[in-house]
Design brief:
Number of strands: 5
Distance between the termini: 45 Å
Helix content: 40-55%
Shape: globular
Mean pLDDT: 94
Order of helices and strands: HEHEHHEHEHEH
Length: 196
């Protein structure tokens, strides 16, 4: 089997791994840099950089946990619900906030192309994490729209998409994609005429 085929087989084994199935160690600074290098290879137009990543680790995890708890309280959760939100922020050894920087007035690159680049960057980041031996999962939900959380993570012109939970997987999923297979995602254009 060629090295290329081995690499493709490794990519075909990637599944999202949630925070409760992640343990230490999380990725090192060097590994995170490699993940971002992979993200920078996402298809783009005009060499824009419509995304950025912010790493949450160490003592910053407790700060994020308090933000999550406060957001839970603001959303009407009781003390137990807010505490659960805080605990969720602490589960992953490393969390990476994903932010988009979409230039709505760009003269050459429409917003939908910039969003496509953001999605490609996110996929490349997660694939690189997988190939380095880590598990990861993108998480979002109502918290990305909480004003205090957005203010804490976003700079001017940035949109918070969510967080990638990263760590060493406690288990690995196996088998084919659960999304229904190639036949549902790939077709010929134009569609062949149906016999009458």
């Amino acid at each position: 089997m060629s090295d290329e085929h081995k690499a493709l087989q490794a990519l075909l084994s990637r599944y999202s791994v949630g925070p409760k199935h992640l343990s230490e160690p999380g990725p090192s600074s060097a590994d995170l840099s490699l993940m971002v290098e992979a993200a920078l290879r996402a298809p783009d137009h005009a060499e824009l950089l419509p995304f950025c990543f912010k790493v949450v680790r160490g003592a910053a995890r407790a700060q994020m946990a308090e933000l999550f708890a406060a957001a839970g309280r603001a959303a009407g959760k009781d003390a137990a619900g807010a505490a659960l939100d805080a605990e969720r922020a602490l589960r992953a050894p490393v969390t990476v906030a994903v932010l988009a920087r979409i230039d709505l007035g760009h003269p050459l690159v429409p917003a939908h192309e910039q969003w496509a680049c953001v999605g490609g960057a996110l996929s490349n980041f997660l694939n690189a994490a997988h190939l380095l031996g880590y598990g990861g999962k993108m998480l979002s939900g109502a918290k990305v729209r909480d004003a205090a959380i957005m203010a804490a993570f976003c700079g001017p012109g940035e949109t918070l998409l969510g967080w990638i939970a990263l760590g060493t997987p406690l288990r690995r999923a196996t088998g084919p994609s659960r999304k229904g297979g190639v036949a549902l995602a790939l077709s010929e254009w134009p569609q062949p005429a149906k016999p009458t």
